[in-house]
Amino acid sequence: MTAQVTDKLIAKAKELGLPPQTEDFLRQADLAVTEAVQKAGTYTDENRDKISAALDKAGRAVDEKTQGKYSDKIAKARLQAEKGIAKLAEQRTPPTGSRPREGPLLVEGAFAVCRMP
């Protein structure tokens, strides 16, 4: 979630008369989502070679099974996957001592949280 989404949810919760603990829950959920995205980004960044090798292997297997009939589509799908991996890796946990970033990021069709200046 982003701060904007969290704020909208909190406003709606207040409008519906939900207990004050709802705001705390939503803020904690926002932090948990941010942390999860950062951890996924860190893992992705640290394992790009392994991920790329797996994509190559999968692409070759599908290409072989389809006898090269869909080679162009497989290449396009791999390129899109690499772009998504790069975007996710950008969300890695910031180095110690750096400022957190804020803002939303669209990651290949899935809404994710990032922190941008």
Describe the protein.
The structure is a single chain. With 117 residues, the chain is mostly helical. The chain has one domain. It is 65% helix and 11% strand. It is built from four helices and two strands. A two-stranded antiparallel sheet has the order 1-2. A hairpin with a 2-residue loop joins strand 1 (102-107) and strand 2 (110-116). Helix 3 (48-65) runs antiparallel to helix 4 (71-89). The protein starts with a helix and ends with a strand. 11% of the residues are buried.
Summarize the structure.
This protein has 117 residues and is mostly helical. The chain has helices at 3-15, 21-46, 48-65, 71-89, and strands at residues 102-107, 110-116.
- Number of DSSP-assigned strands: 2
Anisotropy-based shape: elongated
State the helical fraction.
Answer: 55-70%
- Total domains: 1
Regions with pLDDT < 50 over 5+ consecutive residues?
100-117
In percent, how much strand structure appears in the residues?
A: 5-15%
> Helix and strand string, N-terminal first?
HHHHEE
Tally of separate helices:
4
Task: Round the Cα radius of gyration to an integer and report it.
Answer: 19 Å
Mean pLDDT, rounded to whole units?
83
Distance, first to last CA: 17 Å
Structural class: mainly alpha
Features:
mainly alpha; 4 helices; 2 strands; 117 residues; disordered C terminus; two-stranded antiparallel ribbon; Antitoxin_Rv0909/MT0933
